[in-house]
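Appendix C: a fully annotated inverse folding record. The material below is reproduced so that readers can follow the format used throughout the book. The structure is listed first as tokens, followed by the designed sequence.
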């Protein structure tokens, strides 16, 4: 009975992780209403982070990324994907707040693309995913930056 439970647990955990899966490319919009194809960021490893901008934990992790960004930006690309209901939340955060306007990396809005959230199994926020430059998902989910996950890029 214990083996059966253990096997079910392992299978459940494997179904949550998409490590090794091919990168699912998609197009999203910036706050300036420009379309961005994520495959253009595949010249080095890509860290996707899915956030909700009214979530305290998401904001805390973005601040950790901000603190490290200048040191790691030559070794990886970072893209934040706001999963707030409308683009206004991202626009206000990125353009009208002192915090968001400091962030130097690309910030996009998911624009109601629930297939994207399903593809990457986004169930909670914040969630970070590491994709290799050859287009394979390396870690999904990735540990949060506050747990040291970005130190490999120094």
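Designed amino acids, in order:
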């Amino acid at each position: 009975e214990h083996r059966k439970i253990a096997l079910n647990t392992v299978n459940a955990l494997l179904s949550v992780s998409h490590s090794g899966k091919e990168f699912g490319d998609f197009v999203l919009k910036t706050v300036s209403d420009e379309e961005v194809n994520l495959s253009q960021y595949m010249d080095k490893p890509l860290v996707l982070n899915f956030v909700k901008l009214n979530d305290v934990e998401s904001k805390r992790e973005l601040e950790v990324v901000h603190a490290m960004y200048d040191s790691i930006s030559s070794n990886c690309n970072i893209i934040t994907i706001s999963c707030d209901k409308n683009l206004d939340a991202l626009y206000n955060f990125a353009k009208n707040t002192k915090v968001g306007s400091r962030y130097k990396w690309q910030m996009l809005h998911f624009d109601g693309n629930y297939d994207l959230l399903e593809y990457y199994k986004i169930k909670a926020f914040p969630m970070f995913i590491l994709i290799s430059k050859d287009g394979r998902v390396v870690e999904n989910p990735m540990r949060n930056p506050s747990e040291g996950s970005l130190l490999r890029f120094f």
